[in-house]
């Protein structure tokens, strides 16, 4: 079945990894640096023309959940674009609290692997369109393997199989991060993204490896993903979203300008 999405505008999504209330960024999931206040950054990106935002509480615990809910409320007051929140969501009550605080979608990762029925429960409770499955993948011994706990734990689960299962359970979108490419600024993993995009019928957000504007053009042309996500190139002003969208437009890639 071919995805009926060729004419849809491609989305540009800044990602804010949040730790202790601050935005941070690392390379290959380690060596974290401070990148600013998440609420201020969110407002800037909305003004620049970002299509959506993703916030990931990368060290989420239940103690910090209240902090995240306050941040979500602050962000919701500032934004007129959709935003996704993820990190530490393990049950319906967690998702409900974040959606009630103003988030548009929730992202689940490790909890879904440990309890795949969570995907089904969330989709039934809130609708498929609210459920984003984040997958951290790394190439190990000739296979693409799922990693958990912020990429620290490899499990015996092949990425392709897990994503297909998640789609069947009711995931509405896949946020696929290549750990091999993450933070390297060497380009997205277009081969893997294209392969998975051919397998499923829900949107894919490409993550991991953006270093310049050509990388965004490449991932849309080669992998035909629905959205491309990046962090440090946006946080440190290396790529400005209006410039990126003009470049994509010049390359006949449909974007909202």
From TrEMBL:
- Highest taxon of the lineage: Bacteria
Cross-referenced InterPro entries: Aldolase_TIM, His_biosynth, HisF, IGPS_HisA/HisF, RibuloseP-bd_barrel
EC number, as in UniProt: 4.3.2.10
Quote the Pfam families the UniProt record gives.
Answer: His_biosynth (PF00977)
Where is this gene product found?
Cytoplasm
**What residues make up the catalytic site?**
17, 136
Record's catalysed reaction(s): 5-[(5-phospho-1-deoxy-D-ribulos-1-ylimino)methylamino]-1-(5-phospho-beta-D-ribosyl)imidazole-4-carboxamide + L-glutamine = D-erythro-1-(imidazol-4-yl)glycerol 3-phosphate + 5-amino-1-(5-phospho-beta-D-ribosyl)imidazole-4-carboxamide + L-glutamate + H(+)
According to UniProt, this protein's pathway is: Amino-acid biosynthesis; L-histidine biosynthesis; L-histidine from 5-phospho-alpha-D-ribose 1-diphosphate: step 5/9
This protein's record includes keyword Amino-acid biosynthesis: yes
Q: Which UniProt keywords apply?
A: Amino-acid biosynthesis, Cytoplasm, Histidine biosynthesis, Lyase
Q: What HAMAP family is this protein classified in?
A: HisF
Role this protein plays: IGPS catalyzes the conversion of PRFAR and glutamine to IGP, AICAR and glutamate. The HisF subunit catalyzes the cyclization activity that produces IGP and AICAR from PRFAR using the ammonia provided by the HisH subunit.
Its assembly, as annotated, is: Heterodimer of HisH and HisF.
Family designation: Belongs to the HisA/HisF family.
Protein name listed in UniProt: Imidazole glycerol phosphate synthase subunit HisF
Q: Please tell me the species this chain comes from.
A: Pedobacter mendelii
Lineage, broadest ranks:
Bacteria, Pseudomonadati, Bacteroidota, Sphingobacteriia, Sphingobacteriales
């Amino acid at each position: 079945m071919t995805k009926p999405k060729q004419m849809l505008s491609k989305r540009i999504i800044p990602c804010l990894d949040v730790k202790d209330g601050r935005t941070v960024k690392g390379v290959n999931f380690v060596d974290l640096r401070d990148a600013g206040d998440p609420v201020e950054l969110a407002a800037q990106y909305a003004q620049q023309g970002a299509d959506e935002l993703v916030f990931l509480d990368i060290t989420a615990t239940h103690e910090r959940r209240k902090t995240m809910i306050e941040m979500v409320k602050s962000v919701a007051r500032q934004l007129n674009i959709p935003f996704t929140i993820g990190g530490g969501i393990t049950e319906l009550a967690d998702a409900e609290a974040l959606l009630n605080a103003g988030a548009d979608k929730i992202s689940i990762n490790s909890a879904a692997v440990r309890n795949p029925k969570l995907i089904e429960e969330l989709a039934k409770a809130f609708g498929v369109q609210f459920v984003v499955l984040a997958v951290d993948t790394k190439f190990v011994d000739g296979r693409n393997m799922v990693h958990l706990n912020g990429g620290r734990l490899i499990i015996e689960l092949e990425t392709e199989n897990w994503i297909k299962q998640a789609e069947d359970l009711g995931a509405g979108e896949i946020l696929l991060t290549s750990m091999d490419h993450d933070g390297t600024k060497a380009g997205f993993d277009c081969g893997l993204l294209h392969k998975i995009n051919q397998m499923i019928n829900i949107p894919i957000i490409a993550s991991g490896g953006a270093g310049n504007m050509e990388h965004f053009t490449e991932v849309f042309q080669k992998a035909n993903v629905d959205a491309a996500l990046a962090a440090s190139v946006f946080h440190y002003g290396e790529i400005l979203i209006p410039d990126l969208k003009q470049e994509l437009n010049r390359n006949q890639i449909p974007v909202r300008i």
